Known about the structure:
Helices cover 75% and strands 0% of the residues. The protein is mainly alpha-helical.
Amino acid sequence: MSANERVNFGSKIGIILASAGSAVGLGNIWRFPCEVGENGGAAFILVYILCVMFLGIPVMVSEFLIGRRSRANTGGAYEVLAPGTHWKWVGMMGVVAAFLILGYYGVVAGWTLEYMVASATGRLSGSKDYTLFFNDFVGGPWKPVLYMAAFILLTHVVIVRGVKDGIEKFSKVMMPLLLLIICVLVVCSFSMPGSSEGLAFLLRPDFSKVDGKVVLDAMGQAFFSMSVGMGCLCTYASYFTRDANLVKTAGSVALIDTFVAVLAGFIIFPAVYSVPGLSPDAGPGLVFVTLPNVFQLAFKSVPWVGYIFSLMFYVLLVLAALTSTISLHEVATAYLHERFKLSRKKAATVVTLVCMTLGVFCALSFGLLNGIRLGGMTIFDLFDFVTAKLMLPLGGMFISIFTGWYLDRRIVREEVTDWGKLRIPFFGFYIFLLKFVAPVAIASIFVNELFK
């Protein structure tokens, strides 16, 4: 497919919502509140916002301009802009990362689907050991695999419909629905008995906790949350129209992403603090063990409210996971579709089958394959480590270096200013951030995450 034949998103709102969908994911809902709670509350949020403004947005704009200028999939974008060089391996790393991430992220997405079904059917109601419930599920020989496969197939259905009729159309439905649900849940969470204590915990700035580690954690969360460096934004940008304002789009995506993350804190902290003796913990334990218990105890006197709250929360998680899996799937599908001249349906089918196969091994690493360890890590943990701790930071760093140091300055200026139509007074500062600040900052995140 040539650049002139390449399909575009049909509208500017479609561009923003699809790109925001790529950025918004499960990390906004469980990782961000935990980082806030552990690193000084509102003080961490302020540091995080600064990192988004001065690091996340510039790198996102760079990934956007690489995609739109090349009009190619992530795997081919660098070959177009830097033919005959080793830069092509940066794009290929993004494609490989998409396969690996979708393989294990699909497993966690499957968990959200199971919990949504369990909540709808009343299996999360009543007094029970939610730790045992979770461990029995993830350690089972077939249910985690079944739900993982179901989620990836759901993603497949969107992808085979194409860019306009699939990704854009579903983003226009899913993102507003996600934002509506999260706003409703915030209002409900504020009505809980412990909401004031939870909000105080979230919003009270504790600047005494702000040190080098907190700054690195905030930078890491900013890059992780905004999905830079994994090829999703580059692939989506290759479908951008020529009149799309890259800076404005990146700012809108960052605003939506941060908005969702902060509102997730407004849901979780008041909810958790409404039940004495509980506190937020990190990772899956928060949403799959702690919160089901919270929903039942907090609404013990009005169980139907707990039922609705729980169901809406897990619908929210499913939507957040689905917008992310769609973008990951598209990275790999677009590459196979264009590189090997496969039909979109065949390319999507190959990606779905490969990722489902990888997902089987990741899902079973909590049960039947738990004894298989590589470097002391389960298969699931290994996939997470290789992608989140190695590939994504390296991808973000190379994007900054490629745009700041290698790419012709004329090309960068044309893309950022929309061929001179837009006045960008901070262009020189933008280049300075890409050349000197972002690579050093991302390298610091890389080292910090690697040796945590």
